[in-house]
Design brief:
Blueprint (H helix, E strand, L loop, with lengths): L9 H13 L89 H33 L1 E4 L14 E8 L7 H6 L10 E10 L2 E6 L5 E4 L2 E2 L6 E2 L2 E4 H21 L5 E5 L1 H11 L2 E5 L3 E3 L4 E3 L2 E5 L1 H9 L8 H19 L2 H4 L2 H14 L1 E3 L4 H12 L2 E4 L2 E8 L2 E6 L1 H12 L10
Parallel strand pairs: 1-14, 2-9, 4-15
Antiparallel strand pairs: 2-3, 3-4, 5-8, 6-7, 9-14, 10-13, 11-12, 16-17
Helix pairs in contact: 5-6, 5-9, 6-7, 7-10
Length: 435
């Protein structure tokens, strides 16, 4: 007996039956289209992980050590945590430590190690700055030094001795001076060049000695072939100043070596204008006078007492001689005293630590000096440092007013000069002229 309503054939019934199994289903059927009926397997209920014990629970004790995440009888799907149930806070390596990152409070003062590191970096940076400055200054200064005197061209030179010998010359060169400046400094306008100051500075292990040679010293000027002019100068008797006037620094060095037997290792020369510029760059030089100094020819006019001399005044003081009882010998003593004071002031902390004084002074000095080709900056520094505490003296004199066909001259005491030069050559303690 058919269960389908009347009026439907068996084919319709079969189609409806297939539709109910695979298709859209009969009206009101809950099965979706193309759904298959799958057998339902009942799963056992899941077991919930035990609730973690809280501190307020009776018998609660903190975890004694590290929780590895392993629990007998339970399978965990995560990093040490059960798949269900409330999350358990991670445990740190110490009891009661949850391992959570604690909020950072206000930063305290840096520890000693941090400060030591900062100080170390600052010190290293300062050293690098000073090193770069020193190297740059050396390169700059070395490039400004005027190496113009060829001592290697001088013939028949004596053998070298102990220590180092500098020949320091102050010339009356007006190079760089305008006519107005020449009048202000009372230099005159004489053509040519002459020496105004000649000094031997010996630097040795037994002390430093500064010996002045009066420019009117009566000496033998040896035969010489000029390295620049090519002129052959015959041997003659004359004032030592004539050697410089005729063939310049090379013949002057040759004449000093010939008459003293002392080999000159380095040469340094400065003119009128350069000398004044150095003093002005330094800010003046303080000198103290026991009595007033007045000389119309040089322009010197100073009251007794201590006062700071500028460049023009310093030049006037070093050139004046007419009021000196010993004339040219008295002037050389003033020049030695002034150079010693100048060197002391140039080497003082107030100059060396003040770049606004140091660099202008260095620049003025390097522009003014003419030195030999082998002079280094270290040699130049040694020369200035040696002038500070050097023993000062004139070359031994037998007659300061020796009459010659060239006018009044200064005659040396040959025996004392030979003894003095022997002591300098051997770098012995100087006893000549010391009372």
């Amino acid at each position: 007996m058919s269960d389908w309503p009347a009026g439907r054939s068996d084919d319709e019934q079969n189609r409806n039956r297939d539709r109910e199994r695979y298709g859209r289903g009969a009206a009101g059927s809950p099965r979706p289209e193309n759904a298959r009926v799958m057998p339902h397997v009942q799963r056992p209920p899941r077991q919930r992980a035990p609730e973690p014990r809280r501190p307020e629970d009776p018998g609660y004790a903190a975890a004694p050590g590290y929780d590895s995440g392993y629990n007998e009888g339970q399978v965990y799907r995560g990093a040490g945590r059960p798949p269900h149930g409330p999350s358990v806070p991670p445990q740190g390596p110490y009891a009661g430590d949850t391992g959570a990152r604690r909020p950072r409070g206000p930063r305290g003062p840096a520890g000693p190690r941090n400060w030591r590191r900062r100080i170390g970096y600052s010190a290293l940076g300062l050293v690098l700055v000073l090193l770069i400055t020193a190297v740059g200054t050396y390169i700059w200064a070395d490039g400004k030094l005027r190496r113009e005197v060829d001592l290697a061209s001088i013939e028949d030179r004596p053998e070298g001795g102990e220590g180092t010998n500098f020949l320091i010359v102050g010339s009356d060169s007006r190079e760089g001076l305008s006519e107005e400046e020449q009048q202000e400094m009372h230099t005159g306008s004489t053509e040519g060049q002459r020496t105004d100051t000649i000094m031997i500075l010996h630097v040795g292990a037994n002390g430093n000695t500064m010996v002045s040679l009066p420019r009117d010293s009566w000496v033998t000027i040896p035969a010489f072939t000029g390295s620049v002019t090519g002129n052959r100068i015959p041997e003659s008797q004359n004032k030592i100043n004539a050697a410089y006037s005729s063939e310049g620094p090379e013949l002057l060095v040759r004449t000093v070596e010939y008459n003293t037997g002392l080999r000159i290792d380095h040469y340094a020369e400065i003119g009128f204008g350069g000398f004044a510029n150095v003093v002005d760059a330094l800010g003046g030089v303080e000198m103290c006078f026991d009595e007033p100094v007045q000389d119309e020819n040089s322009g010197a006019d100073f009251e007794a007492g201590c006062q700071t001399l500028d460049g023009a005044e310093s030049l006037a003081f070093n050139r004046q001689r007419y009021q000196e009882a010993e004339g040219d010998l008295g002037r050389t003593q003033n020049q030695q005293e002034f150079l010693g004071t100048l060197a002391d002031q140039a080497a003082s902390p107030g100059t060396l630590l003040n770049p606004f004084t140091l660099y202008p002074t260095m620049s003025a000095s390097l522009d003014a000096l003419i030195v030999d080709e082998d002079m280094s900056l270290w040699d130049l520094r040694a020369m200035f440092w040696a002038m500070r505490g050097a023993t000062r003296m004139n070359i031994p004199v037998a007659d300061p007013g020796f009459a010659t066909d060239k006018g009044s001259a200064v005659l040396w005491d040959e025996a004392q000069v030979d003894l003095l030069m022997e002591q300098l050559i051997n770098d012995e303690e100087v006893t000549v002229g010391q009372e």
